[in-house]
Amino acid sequence: MVQKYQSPVRVYKHPFELIMAAYERRFPTCPLIPMFVDSDTVNEFKSEDGAIHVIERRCKLDIDAPRLLKKIAGVDYVYFVQKNSLNSRERTLHIEAHNETFSNRVIITEHCCYTVHPENEDWTCFEQSASLDIKSFFGFESTVEKIAMKQYTSNIKKGKEIIEYYLRQLEEEGITFVPRWTPPSIAPSSETSSLCKKQAASLALVVPDAAQAEGLGSEALSSPSGPPEPVAGTPDDKLDADYIKRYLGDLTPLQESCLIRLRQWLQETHKGKIPKDEHILRFLRARDFNIDKAREIMCQSLTWRKQHQVDYILETWSPPQVLQDYYAGGWHHHDKDGRPLYVLRLGQMDTKGLVRALGEEALLRYVLSINEEGLRRCEENTKVFGRPISSWTCLVDLEGLNMRHLWRPGVKALLRIIEVVEANYPETLGRLLILRAPRVFPVLWTLVSPFIDDNTRRKFLIYAGNDYQGPGGLLDYIDKEIIPDFLSGECMCEVPEGGLVPKSLYRTAEELENEDLRLWTETIYQSASVFKGAPHEILIQIVDASSVITWDFDVCKGDIVFNIYHSKRSPQPPKKDSLGAHSITSPGGNNVQLIDRVWQLGRDYSMVESPLICKEGESVQGSHVTRWPGFYILQWRFHSMPACAATNLPRVDDVLASLQVSSHKCKVMYYTEVIGSEDFRGSMTSLESSHSGFSQLSAATTSSSQSQSSSMISRSPKHQLGLLRPAASVPSRACVCRTAKPSPLGWRQVTAKLSAALQEDV
Known about the structure:
Elements: E1 3-6, E2 10-12, H1 16-23, E3 36-46, E4 52-61, H2 67-73, E5 78-87, E6 92-99, E7 106-116, E8 124-134, H3 141-172, H4 190-206, H5 241-248, H6 253-269, H7 277-286, H8 291-308, H9 313-316, H10 321-326, E9 329-334, E10 340-344, H11 351-358, H12 360-385, E11 392-397, H13 408-424, E12 429-437, H14 441-448, H15 454-457, E13 460-464, H16 509-520, E14 526-531, E15 536-542, E16 548-557, E17 560-567, E18 575-576, E19 592-593, E20 606-607, E21 612-614, E22 619-625, E23 630-638, H17 652-660, E24 665-675, E25 688-692, E26 700-704, E27 706-707, E28 712-714, E29 736-740, H18 752-761
Parallel strand pairs: 10-11, 11-12, 12-13, 25-28
Antiparallel strand pairs: 1-8, 2-8, 3-4, 4-5, 5-6, 6-7, 7-8, 9-10, 14-24, 15-23, 16-22, 16-24, 17-20, 17-21, 17-23, 18-19, 22-25, 26-29, 27-28
């Protein structure tokens, strides 16, 4: 597997020329990097005017690896080739490096770039990227990869100090300014020419034209990237190192790289606003910074947020009066770390009465609104306290908890709420303080704890009786001035006291079911089921030619084929497929078939777009300009896996895909709209759609393009915040993004024990 690294933008509040002067002092060797043994100049080129200076060096490195591994490899030193290209006219330095040793077994590449800050020409920006691909290494691939990543990370950290060290050295020598490059005079006299040569020679001691050996390789040389300093800003599509430290916290170099790479993937594969950096970072932390796993759960969450319009819940939904009166929870100042503090008096809350009066969906929606408010408060506290705050503290008072709270439907609702919150709001709970836990609490904990993530459970602090008042109790986490009055504190808490919900507010099971269905179907999207041999079809009647049909749908389950047909005659009234025939249990699902079986393609109706195969988890938006009036049919059809040739074995991808589609059933969530040509915002000759691949097994993304007669199809993920309306957002180009699974690695038994021993040594 290829390991990649991408640094944030690091900014130095020093001119480019002074940075280059400090930069060059690392050659031919650098005492700050013990593994950098020596370097020799292989090639050098300088333009006549001195603006361009290209130098190629061969660098000798002493890698800190186990002696046994060096003996097996048969080398004591590793060599890298580094090419520095300095353009004094443009004030840029590009550094490219690759390994020379074991280049047929290991491929290491690195690229570094120094440029002038876009908003301040007296500042310098630095970026670095690298990749490591170990194809084979005597059976020790995993060990070598760990050694490389370990040393590269440590050298990146050390590299932050290098520029600062040499800048101080220059200052001690009285060098605080280096003039910029200027073009030489056209016809200098002999005296002037001699004087220029002397000045150039002396200046070379201060500002060498060659750049420094910044990158040297993924295993080796670090990037000198000075200490973080406050900056005015960097381009919107890049993350600044100081911004990360200020708003996201202290991250390791590899964690920074994961955040930047996942963010770049979102920028490259969808059109529109991407999720906030704090949101992306939460999903990465929830999966220990495994990019593929984090991308999978984040994409699933984005689809869920869109389906239920969670982004608008604070503006469009108001909790019923019953919740406002009897839900014993609310926000209450903040803890000592600046986290927003949420107080829940669960023991005083009538969970059974709330479920009977409101239903499970209303309670879930209210909890979602609490979480959305928590995200908003975290952003506010980050600005107020001047440090990153990405989670909140929850204080749960269990006084009054009894067997009534263990009512089975109430526990079921609680478990579902926990499941939804765990999946869509990871790493938002900073600490959970459970106070005055009664004897019945272990029963509730036994039921609930298996549904809580291990990382989340570690944040739980449980106090029985009045233990919270002693050492290690509440005062360690919350200031005395804001401890609620019902916990013997001095602060009046405005959280409702709860109490029993009057039975007169209870509703029947049928009323609750209809209410639950209404809550989650208050959306412009419709749900449909697709079966093998039973496609789902919708009819759109077009009166005016050149109208625009737009669509937006998510493939929630299975793989489907999307088609668009045109017919001059109206189909018969839709036939709904029997629910019992295919065991449909979803109340929102339906299956409608419009095309009569006696109709013939090409005679009764025609295909106006090429079929589009959509995989499970993908989200598709598109547009089609109608050429003729009449009836247009949008069809979602079950996609069957193609039969393999008799001489070929089935692919692993095909087998896994076939296992994922059970009972020959697919499910889609869709929205369509017809827009007049004069109202469509976009090019009528270059309509495009975006199609995002949220594969559950994403590992690599490749791009290609395909064009169609009246619309173009592209695949890219959609943004999280806000609804992406197809008619309002037209991408500038078409691309198809696919995901592929990595092949499993094989291990050699003969070297297994040696490899394990080496890993322990590492």
